Amino acid sequence: MESCRSGNTPAGHAACLNQGRVSVAVKRMPVDGAEGLLEDVKQLAPYKAAALTDGSYGYAVTKRGRRVPISWESMVNDDLGAFLEIPDRLARAARRTEEYFVTTLFVGTTGPLGTVYTAGNKNIVNATNAGGDFTADNPPLSVDALRQGIAVLSNQVDADGQPIMIEALTLMVPPALEEAADKALKRSNVEEGGAALENVAQGIARKFVNPYLTDDDAWYLFVTNLGVPPLMRIVFREMMRRDKGPDSELYRDTSEIEIFSDEWTDYRLTDWRTGLKSKP
What we know:
- This protein is α+β, with helices and mostly antiparallel strands.
- Helix content is 19%, strand content 30%.
- It has helices at residues 72-76, 86-103, 127-130, 143-154, 178-186, 249-254; strands spanning 2-3, 17-21, 27-28, 31-32, 53-54, 57-58, 62-71, 107-108, 111-112, 169-173, 189-192, 195-198, 205-209, 219-223, 232-244, 256-269, 275-278.
- A hairpin with a 2-residue loop joins strand 11 and strand 12.
- It is extended.
- It starts with a strand and ends with a strand.
C-alpha cells in the first residue's frame, strides 16, 4: 500500500484544529493545568506541585473510501495516460472530504452550530462578551467587527484562569465574504461611522476562504499561535491506496483492475475558547 499525494486543494482546517495522523485506532490523553503563574519558592523550601487534569478519549474511527474500476479496453485505449492521474484524483477527494468533515464539526446546514457557540461559552461576538465601548451583537464583517472579535477572544481565559495570548489569528469566511475580508485585513486605518479606527487585526490575522461554510453572512475567528489549544483535535489515518492489478482474481475473471482509497477519521472538540463566530 502507498499513501496518495494530497493534490492541490488547500487545507484550511489547520486554522481551527490540531491534526494527527495514525495507522490504527488509538487512545489519546489530553491534559490541562500547570500553566498558571509560578509561585515564589523560599530558600530550601520544596517546589509546589501542580495538578494536571487529564482525560482519556478514544477515536471511534469512521471510514470513508472510493474505488475506481478500469476495464482492460480502457487501459488499452488510454493514449494520454489519464489513468495515471487517478491516485491524485482520489487524493484531492480525500482532502476535500477532510475539509468538509472538519467544517461540519462547528457549522450546521444553516450556519454556526448552537452547541459550539453558546452564551455560556462566551465565544459569540456581542457587546456582552466584548465589553468596553462595544455595542454590536453579531456584527457583519468589518474592521470594527474584527476589533470587537479580538476583544472577545482577549477576555477568554484558559483552564488555569490565565489570559489567552493572541499572536496569530485566522479569519475564516465563505466565498461571499472574501472581498469584505480583504478590506478588513489589508487596510491600516479606516473610518467607520465617522470615527477613525486602527486595524488591530492587520499583521496578525490571515484570511481563509472556506467553500463549505453554509451561511454567506457568518464569519469565524480562530487563535492559531503555538501554545494555545485549538478549537478541536482530529485524527486522520492517511488516505491509503490499494490496487487490484493484473495478478488479481478480479482481473483474471473480468479483465478489470481497481484502485481503492480509504481514510479513517474521528475528532474531539477541545477548547471552545479559542474560536468565535459572528452571524449577522
